[in-house]
Amino acid sequence: MIRHPAAFASSLKRLDWRFPFPDLVKQRSLMEDHLHPFETAINDFASKERDVVEQAALMWKLIHHVIHKYRRNNPDWQFVRHEDLSREPVAGFREIFERLDIEFSDYVREQVIESSHGNNPANAPEGTVHVIKRDSVANIFNWKSSLNAAEIRTIRDGVAEVSELFYADEDW
Q: 109 vs 124, which has greater pLDDT?
């Protein structure tokens, strides 16, 4: 599941979830095998606490750099953008189920509809970590109201080299 970098950052900001970058530095195999292009930035973040939005931007870039490698090296794997699935949840889940050779039953279809229906709230209630039932279409751009222009610019600038592999200018 691929998620827009600003949506990812918005969620981390809402929950004030920070990442212990020193933990990455200690994982030499991970750094050498996957994250070496970002070693300087990771070391910088490990040595000095950063704003949650800056942390989210770097984490998104690291995660999606690896996702891109997996996608390129494993053409038979499924990769789905959260926003695409949110726009057309029934069709999107049906396609996922078909590719996995799993029955997309009427019960599953009803659960998808119930979980993504426009009558559901667009945002999670304050202080709530997980909310399964959301208005999936309205949820796509929640980040535009929860992040300010400077935060969006920080995220976009911070992830540009990787995000262009998944998102176009109009997605911002």
A: 109
Q: Which residue has the tokens 């009427």?
A: 106
Number of domains in the chain: 1
What does the pLDDT look like over 58-69, one tens digit per residue? 999 999 999 999
Tokens of 140: 């796509």
How far is Cα 26 from Cα 83, in angstroms, rounded to an integer?
Answer: 34
pLDDT of 75: 93
Q: Which residue range forms the structural domain that includes residue 144?
A: 5-171
Task: Give the span between the Cα atoms of 83 and 80, in whole angstroms.
Answer: 9
More confident residue, 39 or 135: 39
Euclidean distance between CA atoms 91 and 163, whole angstroms: 25
Q: What is the C-alpha R_g of the chain?
A: 17
Q: What pTM, to 2 d.p., does this model score?
A: 0.91
What the block records as the tokens of 9 is 């950052």
